[in-house]
């Protein structure tokens, strides 16, 4: 296992231990809801967004203990979005990370409540984080709320649903995914930076740009994998985007041009790390990982 894999494993294990502490115990009433929340939030995954919080904060000199709360808040918000996206009213998916989606493992009403509760928990975690100064805590809450709302993930999903069966321009597709995927990745990076009180605004903006580029590169790679990778490797149905007539980068740009666009965003992301030096090694390698991943 190389240094990147060791660090990614360390971050993943750390956030999962912290999530286990923040999530209500399964035997607390209402036990079915709490069991389903834990199922949705502790069902594995790469924990890329939490890793971005940890890596950014550590690159800027923050103690890792100060990063648990924002890392968990980001993961709770991400888990909520996946649970709701998988519902029959949205993407109607049966598999997530190789397991039945939350509404299949439980039921649709429970899955809706799981999403609601996880979103609330994300903000509760940040609001109660005694490790962050009050002003920084407010900035974190505002940043995450913006990423979750109509100008972020919810807005991106609304555009995505309205675009089914339609042809979007490349610019329209990019605008959609800057909200749907890029907003939360950008927020994860900014939250990690905000945990270090001395971070200048110019550095915050460069890091946010890194997160946006990373989010778009992630989405383009996702679209490519939906074509090139099998269901068992993906952990979700292969070809599901094409089956639902959803606009994707390969459909609009062509497969090779989509790959070229992902490489261009990868270069932009790396350029945004200028000034952080060797401290940003993990952020640079996570950009490589996103471009080269197979699931």
Please give a structural write-up:
The chain has 295 residues and is mainly alpha-helical. It has one domain: Farnesyl Diphosphate Synthase (Orthogonal Bundle). Helices cover 69% and strands 1% of the residues. The chain has 15 helices and 2 strands. A two-stranded antiparallel sheet has the order 1-2. It is globular, with a radius of gyration of 18 Å. The protein starts with a helix and ends with a helix.
Structure keywords:
295 residues; mainly alpha; Farnesyl Diphosphate Synthase; two-stranded antiparallel ribbon; 15 helices; 1% strand
Q: Ranges with pLDDT <50 over ≥5 residues? A: none
Name the CATH architecture.
Orthogonal Bundle
**Anisotropy-based shape:** globular
**CATH level-1 class:** Mainly Alpha
The gyration radius over C-alpha positions equals 18 Å
Quaternary structure annotation: single chain
What is the third-level CATH name, the topology?
Farnesyl Diphosphate Synthase
- Mean pLDDT rating: 91
Task: Give the helix/strand class.
Answer: mainly alpha
Question: Going across the major beta sheet, what is the strand order?
Answer: 1-2
Total individual domains: 1
Task: Explain briefly what this protein structure is.
With 295 residues, the protein is mainly alpha-helical.
């Amino acid at each position: 296992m190389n240094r990147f894999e060791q660090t990614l494993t360390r971050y993943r294990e750390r956030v999962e231990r912290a999530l286990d502490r923040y999530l209500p115990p399964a035997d607390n009433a209402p036990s079915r809801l709490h069991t389903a929340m834990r199922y949705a939030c502790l069902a594995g995954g790469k924990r890329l967004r939490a890793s971005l919080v940890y890596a950014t904060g550590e690159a800027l000199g923050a103690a890792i203990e100060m990063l648990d709360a924002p890392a968990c808040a980001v993961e709770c918000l991400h888990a909520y979005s996946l649970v709701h996206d998988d519902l029959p009213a949205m993407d109607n998916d049966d598999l997530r990370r190789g397991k039945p989606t939350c509404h299949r493992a439980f039921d649709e009403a429970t899955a809706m409540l799981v999403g609601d509760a996880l979103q609330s928990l994300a903000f509760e975690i940040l609001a109660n984080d005694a490790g962050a100064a009050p002003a920084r805590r407010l900035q974190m809450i505002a940043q995450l709320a913006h990423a979750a709302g109509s100008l972020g993930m919810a807005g991106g999903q609304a555009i995505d649903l309205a675009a089914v069966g339609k042809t979007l321009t490349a610019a329209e597709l990019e605008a959609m995914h800057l909200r749907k995927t890029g907003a939360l990745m950008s927020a994860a990076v900014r939250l990690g930076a905000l945990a270090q009180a001395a971070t200048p605004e110019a550095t915050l903006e460069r890091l946010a740009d890194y997160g946006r580029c990373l989010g778009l590169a992630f989405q383009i790679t996702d679209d490519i994998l939906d074509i090139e990778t099998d269901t068992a490797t993906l952990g979700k149905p292969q070809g599901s985007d094409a089956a639902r007539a959803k606009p994707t980068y390969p459909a609009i740009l062509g497969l090779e041009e989509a790959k070229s666009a992902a490489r261009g965003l990868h270069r932009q992301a790396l350029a945004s790390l200028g000034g952080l030096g060797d401290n940003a090694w993990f952020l640079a390698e996570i950009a490589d990982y996103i471009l080269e991943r197979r699931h």
